[in-house]
Amino acid sequence: MAACRPQPSIVGTCRVDLNYTTYEGLQLSNGVNAFLGMRYAAPPLGHLRWRAPVEPAWTGTVEQATKFPPICLGIGAGYPSSGQDEDCLFVNVWAPSNATAQSKLPVWLFIQGGGYVANTNANWDGAEAVEKSGHNIVLVNFNYRVGLWGFLASERVRGDGDLNAGLLDQRMLMTWVKTHIASFGGDPDHVVIHGASAGAGSVAMHLIAYGGRNDNLFVGGVAESIFFPAQPFVRELEYQFDRVASQIGCDNMVPPQQMACLRSKDVALLQAANHAQAFPGRLEPPMPLFYWTPCVDGDLLRDLPYHMFKRGQYINVPLLFGTSTNEGSIFAANAATKSDVAIFLANNYPHLTPNDTDAILARYPRLPALPLHNAWFPTASQAYGEATFICPQTNILNILQHSQSATSSLYAYRYDVHDMENTAAGLGVPHLFDAAAIFGPDNIRNARASYRTYNAPVVRLVMAYYTSFVRSLDPNRHRARGSLEWLPWGRGGREGDMRRMVFETGGNVEMEHVPGDERERCRFWEEGLGDRLEQR
């Protein structure tokens, strides 16, 4: 029978003075303090909807920080919805109980994912990661606005608000960490940002933010299953604004009145409009997976991401990137025919032409069948997984490796840890299956039982590599005793290097070179399709 790790008990309380509020958190039996649900920004309500976040108000009181906060409203959720709210800009911090303002511990800042449409990795417990680091780090996670609330885009929003509010929330949180993390024992000058899925995509956005301007908010980055959906310009998203305005009764008025109208509407009415719809010209099912995304606004995001990286407009810091072997399996349409695959891809990347989808299918033929799925599902899964997650990692790493300004270390991995339940479900090694190994299976939701039995050894390895990177910007310096040295992506600047760590079932690890056929497919997604894949 699988055994759960005993959870630490509460042995007392602890306080931290942040100048605007004093928070009382929990002291845990494993030597970690937990501060849960602290405000890092004012509630984004009323006139603050679709605006950059502002600092929280001074209270002069002691506020409780002893339970996880509500998360931000995601698509498809009704209102009221248990555990979700428009008032959602909260942060959680775990720190060693004996840390002081002089401790200057490295900071692990986790940006959750959810496709920019939900907070799906919210409130993961960081206490074990702090403990397993030898009480040598501070861990932070937080919520940010998503869906309609975080990424409604239009020139009308720009005229009376701020575009990419969800990314601005993230920047606000980084500034909050810079200002306040020393009060928890953290080093404001040693912050490593780690994102999962859309959070990993966000890491890429912060590398190129404001043309690669370095605001000294972080010194390293980790992109776990980097998510690169179609990246629209503002002009391509006016239809989304029009649809929302029409649905809630704010159409047929001049732009300033429209924004005032939207801000006056009840949250339940707006939340009813927070759902996916077909992209223009793509009317047959399935719906796009990710309807709301960051936009190229000319300021925070000044161009398509690949263009920015190729021009050297990014912050040059050590990076660690990783993907799972079967990234597309939980997203792909259950395609029965080759035509189903083409429609699925075109509905998610609407600039693709019929010639493009023909070229894609020429590179992604029918694959062996998988349990519980139709004949062409494996092809849809592989194509979408490589287009959206795996190849963006490879292509960005290659761009950075060959950049004239490249001086920082680059590391990559492929997570190939199989689980009998996933295999039986036809999912292979799915998106973010590594999360339970990074944070510990008792600290995230719905971890597979194999992490407490035959895959338990991989947890020790992965957690140690991750915490080593957070502490030293090198996954090797504090890696688990006896574990394999993690070689960087490329030494000597040769594309042939393209090395990545492979984590395997049961805790085995090895280094591999990216196979030639995978390299060619990744080159096709970037060079063969170009901007048509990035835009919508």
TrEMBL record:
Its EC number is 3.1.1.-. It comes from the Eukaryota. Residues 24-489 form the Carboxylesterase type B domain. It holds the Pfam family COesterase. InterPro entries: AB_hydrolase_fold, AChE-related_enzymes, CarbesteraseB, Carboxylesterase_B_AS, Carboxylesterase_B_CS. Keywords: Hydrolase. GO terms for molecular function: carboxylic ester hydrolase activity. Belongs to the type-B carboxylesterase/lipase family. PROSITE patterns: CARBOXYLESTERASE_B_1, CARBOXYLESTERASE_B_2. The keyword Hydrolase applies. The lineage of its organism: Eukaryota, Fungi, Dikarya, Ascomycota, Pezizomycotina. This is Carboxylic ester hydrolase.
